[in-house]
Amino acid sequence: MKIPTPLGPSVFPDMSRPNSSGSECSRTGMSVHIPQELPDFLLQFTKDAIRAQPEDIIEYSTAYFTAMVKGQPFSVKPNPEAKLELTNEILGILHSQLSERGTVRKLEIGLIWKSLNMPENTFNHILSMGKFGEEIEWNKFLASCCSYLGKVNNIY
User: Fold this and answer.
1) Domains of the chain: residue spans and CATH
2) Among 36, 121, 142, 143, which is most exposed with the fewest C-beta within 10 angstroms?
């Protein structure tokens, strides 16, 4: 299954045919079949919505899913007015994309940071705080982000 991206067309999976995986619904006792593609599909939608920061999420979702059903590309353009703040959820997205690699280039983290529409000054502050060079140990960067969050949220 192709997941919609800003760079190419999307294909909506045929969800009319249940697959062999499923679970029983606790309220009705009926078997509910969940397409294997659904988790990846919803993850991509969530990332795209975070990047876009739409003013009207319902309107955005309608346009997004309509494009998918029609097999048309959907352009995800970040709203330059809406800068996100660093949150646990944003850290989770970064961690899911970079954690397995151990060492990551500063440029690569910066590109993902920018694609999430995060403020550049926050990124630069974290880099300065951790005294990072061009090659960054992911776990140390993650720890610096957590430290930044703690200070911003007055945890300590």
Assistant:
1) 1-14+25-82 (no CATH), 88-152 (1.10.238)
2) 121
